Amino acid sequence: MKYVPWSQDAARILLATLRDEEGPVLMALQLMQSEFGYVDKAAVELIANFFNKSRADVHGVLTFYHDLRTTPPTEHVIALCVAEACQAVGSRDLEQVVKEKFGDEVQNAYCFGNCALGPAVMVDGKLIGRANLKKISAARL
Description:
Elements: H1 8-16, H2 24-36, H3 41-50, H4 55-64, E1 78-81, H5 84-88, H6 91-102, E2 106-109, E3 121-123, E4 126-128, H7 133-139
Parallel strand pairs: 1-2
Antiparallel strand pairs: 1-3, 3-4
């Protein structure tokens, strides 16, 4: 995925699109991540000031949602479901193998709604059912 480099000016333009929304903090954080690939530390204060919220309010939302990133993404992002249904069919074992091979690209996720085809993995936004190392490796190409 290609992202725009982080800048305060670009972030302000994005925030302006949410000016009239109710409860805009989560939408602003999601928009930042969608545009830049992650939520830069400077975005917390920028969002707080823009929407007249405390930095603590924005930080609380940012840290509550597991899908929000505070560091730039790696070239590939592998999200592996570790919810109960996928654990029951081996996602924790797969997690160890995948983390050994791909390291920082791997992050845990909680349910893609593909429980019948677990373990489920999302590679660069593409859902893979009955995932294994071979399927994940092929999806990264």
